[in-house]
Design a protein that fits this description.
Strand 1 (about 30-35) and strand 2 form a beta hairpin. Helix 1 packs parallel to helix 2 and helix 8 runs antiparallel to helix 10 (about 285-300). The mean pLDDT is about 95. The radius of gyration is 18 Å and the shape is globular. The protein has helices at about 10-25, 65-85, 95, 110-120, 130-135, 160-170, 190-200, 225-240, 255-260, 285-300; strands at about 30-35, 40-50, 55-60, 90, 90-95, 100-105, 200-210, 215, 240-245, 265-270. It is an alpha/beta fold. It has ten helices and ten strands.
């Protein structure tokens, strides 16, 4: 059976076609959308399993980090195939691993930003003139959404402190990266994620970024001890290092908000090593390194 997911760039249309193809091949997976982006693109999810213990994997918060979307789609396909065949994935029986559990995968949190970074002005739609000015015509460095807000700075976790840090760094408004917006959860992509988490009892979240081969697991006084233990398992599995964020990466992120809001484990996983955007031909190498962790993230 041929793989649906290949080692190539995925714009929004190709990603949409891929999630529908996965659903078509594995109809027991649930496909839906948690909301829409600024430009009206669906924020697709795939749900695998029907158990009450829910784990959430999210990816592609940033336009230059779109390889993380493809990693999530590849894992979804491999996990579904293993379930369908009653086979193992990363040495673990897939059907047994999913007993009592559900995995929700949101492969692309920021579809607008990914299209802008990948396709340039043709990916900007009616926002083209503004985006051109904000990035001085260099669309390839675009990480933010279509309003110039960095989604991973837009969560209500130390947001006021982050605003001060942004201004000290000379960031006062819409930008290709690191601008946290006018207020926490000002962006539809951010609200879609927070609404999903508030409406469902999610055990823990993994947010995938690139690059650095690092794992971040702490945020503030509500970081659960279980988070440290899980992070140590993830690090042992992947060979990635455990780190603490510094500077403008210290607040405002999705895993920061999740830990602060629910006092449950949250993780930022920086996959791969190199310069963003990582070459799509690195996909096989990166995926092989993290597949076991992706399975462990469901069962821990």
């Amino acid at each position: 059976m041929n793989d649906i997911i290949n080692t190539s760039e995925y714009d929004y249309i190709k990603l949409r076609d891929a999630v529908y193809a996965i659903k078509g091949r594995y109809p027991f997976a649930e496909l839906g959308s948690i909301g829409k982006s600024v430009m009206g693109k669906e924020l697709y999810y795939l749900k695998i399993g029907k158990g009450g213990s829910i784990v959430l994997y999210t990816a592609a918060f940033h336009g230059m980090e779109r390889i993380t979307s493809v990693l999530m789609l590849r894992f979804a396909e491999r996990l579904l195939r293993a379930i369908d065949d009653d086979a193992e994935i990363a040495g673990i029986k897939a059907r047994r691993a999913m007993i009592g559990r559900s995995l929700v995968i949101i492969p692309r949190v920021n579809p607008d930003g990914c299209d802008i970074a990948l396709k340039g002005i043709s990916g900007c739609g009616y926002h083209a003139a503004k985006i051109y000015n904000w990035c001085s015509g260099n669309f390839s460095i675009w990480n933010a959404n279509a309003r110039g807000v960095d989604i991973n700075h837009n969560f209500d976790a130390g947001w006021n402190e982050l605003q001060k840090m942004e201004k000290n760094a000379g960031i006062y408004g819409p930008s290709p990266t690191r601008y946290g917006g006018l207020s926490p959860e000002s962006e539809p992509e951010t609200c879609a994620l927070t609404n999903l988490c508030r409406k469902n009892s999610i055990c823990h979240v993994l947010a995938f970024h690139s690059q650095g081969e690092e794992i971040y697991w702490r945020y503030g006084e509500h970081t659960p001890q279980k988070g440290k233990k899980m992070a140590e398992v993830f690090a042992a599995s992947t060979g990635y290092t455990l780190e603490a964020p510094i500077g403008l990466a210290s607040h405002g992120g999705f895993k920061d908000w999740f830990i602060e809001e629910f006092h449950r484990p949250g993780f930022t996983i920086e996959v791969g090593k190199g310069k963003n955007p990582l070459d799509c031909h690195m996909l096989d190498e990166i995926y092989k390194r993290i597949e076991e962790m992706l399975v462990l993230g469901i069962v821990l």
